[in-house]
Amino acid sequence: MFQLLDGKATAIEIKNRIANEVRQYTQQGLRAPHLAAILVGDDGASQTYVANKEKSSHEVGFTSSVYRYAEGTSERQLLETIDFLNHDEEVDGFIVQLPLPGHIDEQHIINAINPKKDVDGFTPVNLGNMMLGEDCFVPATPKGICTLLRHYEIETEGRHCVVIGRSNIVGTPVANLLSRKGFDCTVTLCHSRTQHLSALTRQADILVVAMGKPEFVTADMVKEGAVVVDVGIHRVADASRKSGFRLLGDVKHDEVDERCSWVTPVPGGVGPLTIVSLLENTLQAYKRTMAL
Ligand code: NAD
Predict the structure, then answer these.
(1) What is the mean pLDDT of the chain?
(2) CA distance 141 to 273
(3) Which of 10, 133, 197, 241 lies 20 to 30 A from 115 at CA?
């Protein structure tokens, strides 16, 4: 019988802890931590992500602000806003919601963010420091996955962890983190050119799936007793739901879950931990700014 790596419940616990800490600071007369976001265009998923980040910020007592721009906005306009936020002493951290429209060079935009305010952990300085195991902002989704594994005391030392997906924001950093001291996994990183994927995934004690393909991972790809972390989020039309859609992961849960020892549900697994990790990073930035 499998057990759930319950991201929703874990996130509530962590949010309560953050809210208590923030309350102590504001009761001492200090200002609240401030998280800002830059949102370009009207992509539905990006709007939802930013709205959730705003909502969670308010729940823990943070100030939050969103800088919204039309799809056709220029790279120069975004760089000006980033420069403003880099220098605004009342803003502890900010994010640029990705993806950006095709005419904007994403890496150019990310490179302009002051690493001290880069609470998404996407700048070369933060990613470089993460690789070195130095103090840094760890990208939110990989950090959330690590938090979830720790929270449920999943045994990782010497375990074979197979990660599917090598994106800069999920697969590559999580593979790095899980191979480091503290987690001590032996990591195999798979991607779209990997051969014999199923033969590799079947060896995984811990399988992290971040490939962006709905229900790709089926039962025959999973070893009995594996720990499965499903990062994927996909909206699929479902007329039987009030919302008109339901969420699927990269894992076919109706057949995979029963093979697992532990598994993240979708929704309510990695997603809530991603937002909480962003809040943790913002609190870390705030404490540094306020010398707490
Ligand atoms: P991405 O598209 O940037 O990367 C996908 C990766 O999967 C690539 O490295 C690619 O090589 C690999 N891949 C694709 N097809 C493959 C195949 N057939 N075999 C092996 N590897 C294959 O995606 P991403 O940004 O890393 O996101 C992955 C998924 O996670 C998406 O569904 C995304 O929506 C979701 N996501 C969720 C959260 C969260 O908070 N839960 C956060 C970020 C991303």
Answers:
(1) 97
(2) 7
(3) 10
Residues flanking ligand 1, CB < 6 Å: 141, 164-167, 169-171, 190-192, 194, 197, 210-213, 231-234, 270-271, 274
pTM given for the model: 0.96
Exposed, middle or buried: residue 94 (CB in 10 Å: 0-12, 13-18, 19+)? buried
Catalytic residue among 6, 92, 118, 120: 120
Running DSSP on this structure, what letter comes out for residue 219?
A: G
Encode pLDDT of 25-81 as tens digits: 999 999 999 999 999 999 888 998 999 999 999 999 999 999 999 999 999 999 999
Above pLDDT 70, what percent of the chain? Answer: 100
Q: What is the pLDDT of residue 243?
A: 85
Total length of the chain? 292
Nearest to 102 by CA among 147, 163, 158, 41: 41
Q: The domain 29-114 is classified under which CATH number: 3.40.47.10, 2.30.40.10, 3.40.50.720, 3.40.50.10860?
A: 3.40.50.10860
Domain definitions of the chain by residue range? 29-114, 140-270
pLDDT value at 152 more than 90:
yes
Can 47 be counted among the known catalytic residues? no
